[in-house]
Fold this sequence. Notes:
Layout: H1 8-25, E1 34-38, H2 44-52, E2 57-60, H3 63-72, E3 80-83, E4 101-105, H4 108-121, E5 125-130, H5 145-157, E6 161-167, H6 176-196, E7 204-206, H7 213-218, E8 223-226, H8 228-231
Parallel strand pairs: 1-2, 1-8, 2-3, 3-4, 4-5, 5-6, 6-7
Helix pairs in contact: 4-5
Amino acid sequence: CKMSKTSIKDKLAVVRQQLSQAATASGRSPEEIQLIAVSKTKPAAMINEAVLANHTAFGENMVQEAINKMSALNNIDNIEWHMIGHLQKNKVKFCPGNFQWIHSIDSIELAKKLEERCALKQQNINVLIQVNLSQEKSKFGVQQLVELFQLAETLHAGHWIKLRGLMTIPEPDLGEASTRKIFEKLRMWRDQLQKELCAPEINELSMGMTADFKWAIQEGATMIRLGTAIFGPR
């Protein structure tokens, strides 16, 4: 009998189609937006299935869990790993050489530790600053523009870490208008950083998840992080 379960390949096709439509509707090119498949809590076999459907960027939020998957999939050479969860200082040493991107830098102390580790391993890493624009107590991230600039300057001065943009996770269920305001503010802060630091490479906006990625695309997202839409509910 045939399985009625939609395959990861089919789900990816649907998501790519939605991404493309949202981009076109916003007068943007779909090529400007990278889809990050959030594979946290999902087994390596599911990631492998997505790789077979030509997907290469995956988001994890626990360093140890991610490293286990990396070793299970180490025969695949073009996977790009994104650390999207809160990064604990004692886990920094595992990042260089394993993750290509970290979306969740939220303190100067963490930035300096990462720079040291990258220097030790002679490995570059792309980083985004996590901004907590909903100012939720349970979320990490800088909340003030002055705080953002201090952290950005530290990162920008680093030799091994490359500051590439900003990331945010809005409070869920805020509705379209309030959610888009948060996305818009993140874009404005990124534009200010880019200008003040004369750094055109600070161009990424990691924002938008399964529930709100279409709004994020309208507000300029360059990376969207989708888990449920690709791998099903956790």
